[in-house]
Amino acid sequence: MSFADRYNADGSRIRAVLAIFALIGFGFGWVLLYAQGSMVILDADGVVDEVVLRDSSRQVSAMQLVGGLYVTNAHLEGEALVRCRNGREINYGYYTAATHIWQTIEASDCKNARLPSTLTASASYTPNA
């Protein structure tokens, strides 16, 4: 039995081809995120409630993936926000379709973030941090 026959007999070639296609697909996805503009937020400490892009007429929430990863490449121009579980917001400013925001959010980021303009730091507001 030749080397080629043994290589095909145990399915190694099929597994190798599938692995190559998976790597190409994964790489292609990240290239698309980069080419189109993207917002990728890694929630390192589990403090993020929502990641949002919003303009004057609509709001687009980022897709939450496994491991606290939030991803979106919405084609709009507007404000980029990370809403923390304690009610505070991290504002990344103006977002356009070609902008890249790739950040890791930690507990200290949410602790030091500003309160939304509709909330005030008063006795009636108690964050659930």
Protein topology:
Blueprint: H1 3-9, H2 12-36, E1 38-43, E2 48-54, E3 59-61, E4 63-65, E5 69-72, E6 78-84, E7 89-95, E8 100-105, H3 107-111
Parallel strand pairs: 1-8
Antiparallel strand pairs: 1-5, 2-3, 2-6, 4-5, 6-7
The count of β-strands is 8
Q: How many alpha or pi helices? A: 3
Strand content: 25-35%
Strand order of the largest sheet: 4-5-1-8
Q: If you compute it from the alpha carbons, what radius of gyration comes out, rounded to the nearest whole angstrom? A: 21 Å
**Secondary structure: helix percent:** 25-40%
C-alpha end-to-end distance:
66 Å
Low-pLDDT regions: 119-127
Please outline what is shown here.
Helices cover 29% and strands 33% of the residues.
What distinguishing features does this structure have?
129 residues, single chain, 33% strand, four-stranded antiparallel sheet, disordered C terminus, alpha+beta, four-stranded mixed sheet
Overview of the structural elements:
It contains three helices and eight strands. By secondary structure, it is of the alpha+beta class. The strands form two sheets. The chain has a four-stranded mixed sheet. The protein has a four-stranded antiparallel sheet with strand order 3-2-6-7, with no helix packed on it. The protein is globular and about 55 Å long. The N and C termini lie far apart (66 Å).
